[in-house]
Model the fold of this input.
Amino acid sequence: MFRVITLQQARGEVERMWKTPKVKRVRIEEGLGKILAEDVKARVDFPPFDRAAMDGYAVRAEDTFEADEEKAIVLRNLGLVKAGEIPHLTVHEGACVRIETGAPMPEGSNAVVPVEFTRGVKSVEIYRSVAVGENVVKRGSRMKKGDKIVEKNRELTAAMIGALAAGGVRTVRVFLPPKVGILSTGRELVPLDGTLRKGKVFDVNGPMLCCAVQELGCQGVFLGIAPDEPRILKRKIEEGLRTCDALIVTGGTSAGVGDLLPSSLPSVFHGLATKPGKPTLFAMVSGKPVFGLPGNPLSAFFLFRELVAPNLLRMSGRKMEQRTVRARLSVDLTSERGRQEFVLVRLRKEGGELKVEPLRMGSDAITLLRLADGYLDIPLEVERIRAGERVVVKLLAR
Done:
């Protein structure tokens, strides 16, 4: 017998029991696509010194105040400072230094005249005045030591990694996405490379859920198909938990003779007030979560999206981002009161308006996923939605 709880209660139970994400320190270039587990601050000023913003001549700005296009001033060139060099020249009154973009400003200089406003090599004619600090990037003007570069829970991109490198950050702490094992159960199941005999069906849940896990950025590992035999099922679960952070077992969750999972696990809950997905269970074994999803592929699909996926994302430092649209229901729709119901739908444009058409769902409805654009999530207290009412559709496409 099931002691059903709501989906919201089930989510709360999973969060309460499974609440410590894995964190690892990695080199910044290994963190691409990962979620930061901490705020990251600059270790150095950026730039770490005053530097030229362009090619030109490092000058004392006050020496150029009389310069214009009609009347040049002449400064003596003391030499060249290249990017990456330490300048050993001092700019005094009436002098300048040729400087490359990014090179440190020599002592005594406070501005850069762009090279296109100059002429000459040893005696340099200046045809434009500059203000103090013009064309100079001051030390720490972009980032100061101790400034926050990227905050916790942000996904690391190539651009962010560039900013971290500029701030002298070599390593960061990131959330490690869970490694999830997927185990299918049922004597009727045949692997896709097996021979399909009478009474057998190909395993749908294994490949579907492995890919669904990977879509979330986690590692999905298929653990094979377990027959309806208690000792083998228990051994498969134990093997999976030794190598994985979490386990998804499909099939064997109901109350039939061949449904062995409830007796094999110390469940936290067994039974959800959802349609489909009532026989869903959840257990913690050796501190690791085990999700028992119904063997019906469509039920497994819905409960993965609504129960498992949000928790896998949470343990990866991410949040569930469900895309939705509002549209008008094309026909009356009834629902069983007391059960949160999921209904596949197709969207179509009619008279410039988006319409929702429910798809007829049966035990073989997994094939309807190729036709569906999304699904309705009908609250458990709702018994009927009338044609013409506007509803929220959860989209299947990301």
